[in-house]
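Sequence only, no structure available. Ideas?
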Amino acid sequence: MKEFSYRVKPYKLMRMLLPLMRGLLRLVFNMKVFGREHLPKKSGGIILACNHLHATDPAFLAAFSRMEWRFMAKVELYRKKPVSFLLRHANAFPVDRDIIDRKSLDFALDIMRDGRCGLGIFPEGTRSPDGKPMQGKTGVAMIARKTKADILPCALIHDGLKFRGKITVRFGEVIPFTALGLGETPNKRQNREATDIIMAAVTGLWEQGDA
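Reply:
I predicted one. Tokens follow.
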């Protein structure tokens, strides 16, 4: 893969396409969106944490939160030029899931400090094979600790992207950074417990189903 250009300034393409994406997704799927009252007024400085079902998950989250996010995407997706171009201009950036990807983590911190976009993370690190939320990896807690960011939990609920199939997006109450129990210094136990708090909120939203 060609060296990725880590640009903190967001591209404009995603912002321009959001209204079109919303309309198209509502046309193709039977969309239900809950919890819009929990959405912050600004995207910057907050982490969106959601369960992971499909490669298109970021489109649903961006379209129906009506907010700007920078999503981590697995590095394998960047090995083809058309896909890499689209991901870059959709404000995604690569992460190597097989290692502790310091470059990706540092860029995530730069995004949070920049404040123009929020950071979208799928803490599980991969798509759930059965649709149920899994245990999260602790990278989300590491970033939260370093940036003192609040967490916006979210759940996606569907059983496949069928035409006119039900797709539900649930946004939950923001989890304040102070509720995560993270100290000033790195601590594996605290990271694990904070990640479990985040995933418990995501799982609770998922368990409410599509009603």
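The radius of gyration is 16 Å.
Hope that gets you unstuck.
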